[in-house]
Amino acid sequence: MYDQTRAQQPADRPAGLGERRSPSPDPLIPSDARDRIVRRLGHAVNTFADAPGEALEEAESAFDEATDALVNALAERRRVLRAGWQDQGLDTQSAELRLALREYREITGRLLRA
């Protein structure tokens, strides 16, 4: 049975009894890519006084890398989520669909809060 009240709860609301949620969601961009982008931005800031044009180009490139990584990560998450429910028959359990809905809601909420 569809639980409208539960479906309308905000994504960041604590889980009820019997529901398992990690303390914090998995990062959308892997840590090695994030670290590399942060280093590049730091380098751009630190070299700005000596070479402002080059610093801005590096910052722009780091921004592009971050947006590309985010788009790729979101596309992969979407692919995995969709594969979990799209090809299911009529016998798909409501609980499985609810989990997919929660994941979509959680990711979308994180994007809107960013």
Descriptive report:
This protein is mainly alpha-helical and 114 residues long. The chain is 66% helix and 0% strand. The chain has 4 helices and no strands. It is elongated and about 65 Å long. It starts with a helix and ends with a helix. Residues 11-19 have low confidence and may be disordered.
Q: Percent of residues in helical segments?
A: 55-70%
Radius of gyration: 19 Å
- Please mark out the parts with pLDDT under 50 across 5 or more consecutive residues, or reply none: 11-19
Structural class from helices and strands? mainly alpha
Largest sheet: none
Q: Give the total of beta strands.
A: 0
Q: Percent of residues in beta strands?
A: under 5%
Overall 3D form: elongated
Arithmetic mean pLDDT: 81
In a nutshell, what does this entry contain?
The chain has 114 residues and is mainly alpha-helical. Helix content is 66%, strand content 0%.
Key structural traits:
114 residues
SSE topology:
Layout: H1 4-7, H2 31-47, H3 52-85, H4 94-113
Helix pairs in contact: 2-3, 3-4
